[in-house]
Amino acid sequence: MTLSTDWLRGCATALVTPFTSEGAIDEAALTRLIEYQLNNGVRLLVPCGTTGESATMTEEEDQRVISRAIEQARGRAKVIAGTGSNSTAAAIENSKIAQRLGADAVLVVAPFYNKPTQPGLYAHFRAIAEAVDVPIVIYNVPGRTSCNIAAETTLKLARDCENIVAVKEASGNLSQIMEILRDRPKGFYVLSGDDAITFALIALGGDGLISVASNQAPELMSRLVDLALAAKWDEARELHYRLLPLMETNFIESSPGPVKAGLAMMNLIGENYRLPLVPIQDSSRARLRAVMTELGLLKEASHATS
To answer: Tens digits of per-residue pLDDT, 242-300?
Structure first.
């Protein structure tokens, strides 16, 4: 099996999932959001990840969102579908379905709640890799899963499984990330899972970003990643610090609370969540509005839905 994955370099958007006030998938708003991404430089879409509130979505809803992204992105962008689960069997089935739907790759988070050992993590990801032909991006986010994928485990999977082609690293542990960057096999990509460390990670040799902030600012976040990948460090650094307040404010409360509030301010989606997530506090909303206004994002909102 030969997999071409050069397209993994760059800025991907971890898409939010818009809901109606009744709690259903808002397909019109989802279409609008995806079009906003495609029209503003994003060439990688990641539906049904953490930012997409996949934890509260049914399998049928996951498939509808993934299918919508694939259909709309066809010929314009690649789709990395979130298919992870704390059940290996479920993750395999989800990944098979995403492959049948036409996803270009799958994003598989470390099992949450189970707290597997490193051998357990290796066995989990290897089983998924052996069950599907689609490229796999490992997702390490111990702040959500209570389970860190050690650099040694990531590197062993990268060497042993041809279709494990990348890691989305959201551990915040630069020492761990540098170990992966230093020792990874050729053709294995390291993507930032944290907007705020993307500039540093690319400077260390990383390949891109799966972003929350690009939901609101796809053109700016794509430009930041492209400048850094082109080693235009002064321009990239200036843009990084310009965007840093947005990157930080998007996590002032549990994500995707703030980013959904921001997109609602832009009239791209309705601000609707599924419990246990609730709307952000007034103080957070005021801070978010100020940051987005400073970036010019609210002025651009009228063009986004036209």
So the answer is: 999 999 999 999 999 999 999 999 999 999 999 999 999 999 999 999 999 999 999 74
- Three-state secondary structure call for residue 139: strand
User: 6-232 has which CATH code?
Assistant: 3.20.20.70
Partners of 138 in the beta sheet?
Answer: 108, 167
168 is catalytic: yes
pTM of the model: 0.95
What's the distance, Cα to Cα, between the start and end of the chain in Å? 44
From 36, 78, 122, 139, active-site residue: 139
Q: Is the dihedral of CA 54, 291, 192, 67 positive or negative?
A: positive
Tell me the one-letter amino acid at 97: I
For 50-95, the pLDDT digits (tens) are: 999 999 999 999 999 999 999 999 999 999 999 999 999 999 999 9
Whether residue 273 lies in the annotated active site: no
Q: So what's the pLDDT on residue 3?
A: 62
The CA-based dihedral angle spanning residues 290, 273, 41, 197, taken in that order and rounded to the nearest 10 degrees: 70
Q: Which residues of 250-282 are buried (b: 16+ CB within 10 A; e: fewer)?
A: bbbbebbbbbbbbbbbbebbebbbeeebeebee
Q: Domain segments of the chain: what residues?
A: 6-232
Whether the bond between 276 and the residue before it is cis, its omega within 30 degrees of 0, is yes
**Strand partners for 136:** 106, 164
Residues 166 and 184: beta-carbon distance below 8 Å = no
> Catalytic: which of 122, 168, 260, 273?
168
**Which residue do the tokens 């040799």 mark?**
205
